[in-house]
Amino acid sequence: MHKKHLKIPYVLAALLIVASMFYTLPYYISKPGLAKELEPIISVEGGHKEEGSFMLTTVRMGKANIYTYLLAKFGKYQEIYPIETILRKGESEQDYNTKQLHLMESSKTNAIEAAYKKAGIPVEYRYKGVYVMSIVPGMPAEGKLETGDRLMTADGKNLKSMTELLTLLASKKAGESVELDYIRDGKKHHVKLPLKPFEELPEKAGIGIEPVDDREIIVSPKVKVKTDEIGGPSAGLMFALEIYNQLTEEDLTKGYQIAGTGTLSDGIVGPIGGIEQKIVAADKAGAEYFFAPNEKGAKDSNYRAAVKTGKDIGTDMVIVPVDTFDDAVTYLEKLKPKKGKG
């Protein structure tokens, strides 16, 4: 009987530990993710093979519990973010994930455009409407529209771009209404929304959405980019390099394992979050080169942070600063083939 009483504190402690693992804190934790080869993910019809590989680097992000918070607090290359820095006011985790997946789709489109134009192949677009990226709390769209809705018409006119929608809304005054047809989960819906002044810009009125163009790029030869549930815009540069490499005869990998990161828009490489974690992930995966956004040499650039992390972990990986897609291509064209390759 006495032994049973002695076991009770241990049982209670174990139950407390298990329970605390399921209790989330108002923080998110980011940590090094994976470096994935892009050739199995990207396929250009009739594309050329490569001896080395381009690699997509990722960061793992998740809600914090007591243990993950403490590990991040006292560990290296893990970042703690208050929940309000990740989720906007009124934004749910589902809204955030939906937005990240659309950013990935936009990233793929920008990468395809950059690669095909660099290869001298024309591209065309088919507009699919206006995508709702987020909803402003307290505005008329709240509770009526959702992140991920695709607006097809406004006041009976087909929408071909977000500029058309914004121009229409700008022509209206507070109290006037706009009628919208939209698609959600494959079904068509209709809503009539009044315009209301924005709290921060009372001289302007709107319905309270963040719209972006929803468009599909059309190219020949065809290209498939399978990203599953990977979200965010940071893979644009590496997508473009892999696509361009498959489109052209010269193998830009030169037999090396090449990782990197950076958004891509009109050929310009933009900064991303989590560069330190991506350097760690790329190093663990055996990358020999890493392209990092240079941000025109800014003191707090991704490139400088990447170099600092690289020195800290003692990597042999060559970290290369790039401002444009052309910078990366030019660097690879001048790179000598790896011994025993090419």
Automatic annotation (TrEMBL):
SUPFAM superfamilies: PDZ domain-like, Ribosomal protein S5 domain 2-like. Keywords: Hydrolase, Membrane, Protease, Serine protease, Transmembrane, Transmembrane helix. SMART domains: PDZ (SM00228). One of its GO terms (biological process) is protein catabolic process. It catalyses: Hydrolysis of proteins in presence of ATP. PROSITE patterns: LON_PROTEOLYTIC, PDZ. This is endopeptidase La. The lineage of its organism: Bacteria, Bacillati, Bacillota, Bacilli, Bacillales.
